[in-house]
Amino acid sequence: MNLSKKRWVILAACCVANLCLGSIYAWSVFSTSMADYLSGYLGREITSADLAIVYTIANSVGPITMISGGWVNDKFGPKKVVLVGGIMFGLGMIISGFGTSIPFLIVSYGLITGLGLGMAYGSTISTAVKYFPDKRGLIGGIATAVYGLSSVIISPVIGIVVNASNAPFAFKSIGTVFLILLVASSFVIERCPDGFTPDGWVNPEQQQKKAVTKDKNWKEMLKTPVFYLMIFLLTCGAFSGMMVISQAAGIAQQMVGMSAMAASTAVSVLALFNVSGRIVAGYLSDRIGRINTLLLACTFSVGGLLLLYTANTEAVTVFYIGISIVGICFGAFMGIFPGFTVDQFGAKYNSVNYGIMFIGFALAGYFGPSVMRSVYAADGSYQRAFLIAAGLSAVGIVLALVCRCVIKKK
Questions:
Q1: CA distance linking residue 123 with residue 84, whole number of Å
Q2: Neighbours of 56 (CB within 10 A)
Q3: How far apart are CA 288 and CA 286, in angstroms?
Q4: Are 171 and 305 in contact (CB under 8 A)?
Q5: Mean pLDDT of 327-345
Q6: Measured between alpha carbons, how far is 150 from 155 in angstroms, rounded to an integer?
Q7: Are the CB atoms for 28 and 48 separated by under 8 Å?
Q8: Domains of the chain, with CATH numbers?
Q9: Which element (helix H / strand E) includes 215?
Q10: Which of 221, 267, 305, 312 is the most buried (most CB within 10 A)?
Q11: Contact 42, 316 (CB under 8 A)
Q12: CB–CB of 146/282 below 8 Å?
């Protein structure tokens, strides 16, 4: 099988791996049952809020191994990186099943699983995009969408296992399944040859007799003005999504007066539009350009956030439209940026370069929820946070316009 056909098999393996890795978004399903287990074991009350630090650390340490693992990926290929990252991710979950304290879970799930996640995820995304220079936006959207879709598919499965037994058993059993799937996927994923082009495809830059994008390593990337525009654009674009996702159920209950069950439906709607945005925007960016698509995402995001600002108990439809727009715009940034990074800095060193660019997403993941919590603590409501996020999306529009001028000039 030649690479033009085999790349689809490799993409499928990357998607299977990302489906497992995306289960980190299902932490809330584990945490409630684990809190009950630890309360009984320790003889004092432990709540899911007490375990939030575990999830925060697992999400925060990812960029560390995305960058270091990216260096190994670019030098030795993705097979070893996904293998090691997958083993860490699966074993971290299994070990968490033996947890008897919060510090234990911080090490097992927060550090081991979180570091394994960053290593494997960065490699699967980079590898998938490298194999599809003819449709980078679409493939970046698909690969990241499967990661996001995991919360919709895996969460109910985890819930069934937890309800039938308890969180420790769920950690051990599901961790074992993920370990097997991740190790199996790693053996299918192969390194993409430098300069690979699929059969029948001609690089538009060569066709138009333009200079082909030079591969830049991370040091060269950091010397370019466009890098700083891009990373701040990513932070501004992802801020609103990370902010709303962190408190979606609370927003639905506090602002719109939804029941807990109805609020969970709102969370699912947000997740589905987030996933859809990654694929749709990725495909669209292949047609009208990355910057133009990101401009649309920032513009619509402002509108969606203003709708959420006006939502109340008598405007449930407005609330649903608002979170749908925010979800699809957030998904657009997550789906487009893997291909956007390759476009600007080349494919050869993309594993490290995208790992560094991903810091913009990590910043949004920290400041978005933090602003939401601070505003609610100060005002007793979420409204002002939507105005702050809308302002940052407006800044994103400006950054995208400046970025487009810099790229055209280059």
A1: 11
A2: 17
A3: 6
A4: no
A5: 94
A6: 7
A7: yes
A8: 3-188 (1.20.1250.20), 216-409 (1.20.1250.20)
A9: none
A10: 305
A11: no
A12: no
Residue 268 scores a pLDDT above 60: yes
**pLDDT at residue 157 greater than cutoff 80:** yes
Q: Give the residue carrying structure tokens 């995009």.
A: 129
Amino acid in position 398: V
pLDDT tens, position by position, 285-318 = 999 999 999 999 999 999 999 999 998 888 889 9
| Residue given tokens 């727009």 in the structure block | 325
Q: How far apart are CA 156 and CA 162, in angstroms?
A: 10
What tens digit of pLDDT does each residue of 89-113 get? 999 999 999 999 999 999 999 999 9
pLDDT value, residue 206 = 57
Tokens of 355: 């790992």
Angle CA(117)–CA(198)–CA(331) in degrees, nearest 5? 40
Query: Is-contact 309 179, C-beta < 8 A?
Result: no
Q: Rounded to an integer, what is the distance from CA 401 to the centroid of its chain? A: 24
